[in-house]
Design goal:
It holds the Pfam family CD225. Keywords: Membrane, Transmembrane, Transmembrane helix. The protein is an all-alpha fold and 135 residues long. It has a domain at 55-133. It is built from 3 helices and no strands. Helix 2 runs antiparallel to helix 3. The radius of gyration is 29 Å and the shape is rod-shaped.
Length: 135
């Protein structure tokens, strides 16, 4: 038995197996191998950075603009990191783009609703003033 002060002490593989070797004699993956055949999670092999998930814009759109579209934006933004971690780089970029798109649609819908409300109130005020001045 080794002590933690010796090379190969506690926390080390006592059998000095190569973590990148093939399966052992029983067909089981070696220590450190991924048994599912997927590449290990870590830095992506293409040197690309994770796309901006636009979560802040989704939250702001939900609070200040249109609730349904803002919620969709938050859901899309939350999936960006998960997709990136499993190696679905195109899916992560698509989710980030969708999150931004739904946040923008939410802001446009809120502006359209406010414009319609202002027009309705102005028309109501004009009709009210016109009806009271003629009687």
């Amino acid at each position: 038995m080794t002590s933690p002060h010796e090379p190969g002490g506690f926390g080390q593989d006592p059998y000095h197996r190569d973590p990148y070797a093939g399966p052992n004699q029983y067909g089981q993956p070696q220590y450190g191998q991924n048994p599912y055949g997927r590449p290990p999670v870590g830095p992506n092999p293409y040197g690309r950075l994770e796309p901006e998930n636009n979560l802040v814009w989704g939250i702001l759109a939900t609070i200040f603009c249109c609730l349904p579209l803002g919620v969709v934006s938050i859901v899309k933004a939350a999936s960006v990191s998960r997709l990136w971690a499993v190696g679905d780089f195109a899916g992560a970029q698509q989710a980030a783009d969708d999150a931004k798109k739904f946040a923008i649609w939410s802001a446009v819908a809120a502006v359209a609703v406010w414009v319609v409300l202002v027009i309705v109130y102005v028309l109501f005020f004009v009709v009210l003033v016109a009806s009271t001045s003629h009687t």
